[in-house]
Amino acid sequence: MDDGQDESLFEVFWAVARRLRHGTRVALEPWNVTPSQSRAIAVLARHGEMRLSALAEHLRIAPRSATEVVDDLQQHGLVSRSPDPADRRATLVTLTGQGVATATAIHAARAEEGERLFAALNPEDRAHLSRILRILRG
Question: Binning pLDDT at 50, 70 and 90, where does residue 1 land?
Fold first, then answer.
């Protein structure tokens, strides 16, 4: 009987990451947003209005990709764009009221999904895993 001991730590880690990503995609379905769009919403909720270029930096994506994400979010009524008064060539992006409500709901759904995943761990194991992941995050 295989008890999983043949799997490397790397393989197990990626299997858990895939499970978490899948759970997140399922959790996002009610809002019809992609994981990339969800990350953009979270950044704007955390940091407030920002230039499109700053959003791209936060998301670690190319400015063109950030433009596409914002285009989609704007079509959903979740963000608005405006010229930056300090530099008319730059565009500011901010969450709309609907975007703020969506950010709050998505945050709650993701937290619930995380709780569901980590429920298999006792409090001591959770604390150890949290400490280890913070070290790896750097």
Answer: very low
Mean pLDDT of the chain: 93
| Size of the chain, expressed as the number of residues it contains | 138
DSSP for residue 94 = E
* Global pTM value: 0.81
SS3 assignment, position 33: coil
Contact 29, 62 (CB under 8 A): no
Cα–Cα distance, 42 to 86 (Å, whole number): 25
Neighbouring CB atoms inside 10 A of 61's CB total 17
Q: Is 6 exposed, middle or buried (0-12, 13-18, 19+ CB in 10 A)?
A: exposed
Query: Alpha helix locations (H) across 1-138?
Result: 9-28, 35-47, 52-59, 63-75, 97-118, 123-137
